[in-house]
Amino acid sequence: MVNVVHTRKELAAARDGLTGTVGVVMTMGALHAGHETLLRAARERADHVLVTVFVNPLQFGPNEDFDRYPRTLDADLEICRRAGVDLVFAPPVNEMYPQGQPTVRLNPGPLGEDLEGLSRPGFFHGVLTVVMKLLQLTRPDLAFFGEKDYQQLTLVRRMVRDLDVPTEIVGVPTVREPDGLALSSRNRYLSAEERRAALSLSAALRAGVAAAERGDDAGAVLAAAHRAFDPGTSDARLDYLVLTDTDLEPGPVAGAARLLIAAWVGATRLIDNTAIHLAPRP
Ligand SMILES: Nc1ncnc2c1ncn2[C@@H]1O[C@H](COP(=O)(O)OP(=O)(O)OP(=O)(O)O)[C@@H](O)[C@H]1O
Ligand SMILES: CC(C)(CO)[C@@H](O)C(=O)[O-]
Ligand code: BAL
């Protein structure tokens, strides 16, 4: 069985016993093959792999799915054991926030208010605060984050850079189902019909990539993605579909870019994104 600890005291003792480099994979549990890819990447790069499993109340809005978010610790531990994880930290809420919800939170800056932050006010304050706390508690050499949550990855990179955190942030490409759907713990909420509608997100991204490969400009790439998302049959409702530069900065987009989408499928909100390479203008 993998070594699992629930308190910061137990974590400190177990962490002190790890010699060599440590790679951390932070999760909210309900592990799937996307998480397993992060575990493998950590296994390859670090001497020890430490996984955190914590559904962080700070990043959920009052009408979001904190209460019904899937909690499957036994199955998660089995996945960790198979992946050769050395240590799992799965704290209860009062261990992470013994004083209750913290009044001091990290400010993600303007990007934190855009895209995901527009639909989920306070989301990135909650994410960056818990990521920083987990970095302090686990003291990793490397930390692995999925590109599926591209804005989160971008903001974590900025935080580590801006606040001089001595951890290398490693981005891991998105793992998809054979039909294109990005793996996500929230896919478990989808009915069979919603699962079909959810394919609209990756279909939009694929159409954008295909348009860019044909040499279309940014406007035409975005238009192609919109058409593919909404062929008149989908039950998915678009939140945003944007083409930005790879740092998610506003302004004209050229060369390497990122196409990002968020949509509601029934009561479930899903996100996805892809790299886009815009041909140089003639
Ligand atoms: N399909 C995927 N491919 C690569 N990384 C992923 C994938 N899904 C999640 N991750 C990464 O795993 C880490 C933990 O994510 P989390 O536990 O929130 O899972 P999730 O599937 O993204 O859940 P949710 O449905 O809440 O978005 C994050 O760094 C996230 O980007
Ligand atoms: C990084 C994270 C574990 C912080 O709660 C969460 O946002 C996630 O699972 O992507
Ligand atoms: N996967 C990012 C965490 C969240 O949606 O709450």
From TrEMBL:
Give one Pfam family, short name only.
Pantoate_ligase
Q: Which positions in this protein are listed as binding (R)-pantoate?
A: Q59, Q152
The domain of life for this entry's organism is Bacteria
Q: Which GO terms describe its cellular component?
A: cytosol
State where beta-alanine binds.
Q59
Active-site residue list: H35
Q: Which family does it belong to?
A: Belongs to the pantothenate synthetase family.
Record note on quaternary structure = Homodimer.
Question: What is this protein called in UniProt?
Answer: Pantothenate synthetase
Native source species: Micromonospora humi
> Which gene is the coding source of this polypeptide chain?
panC
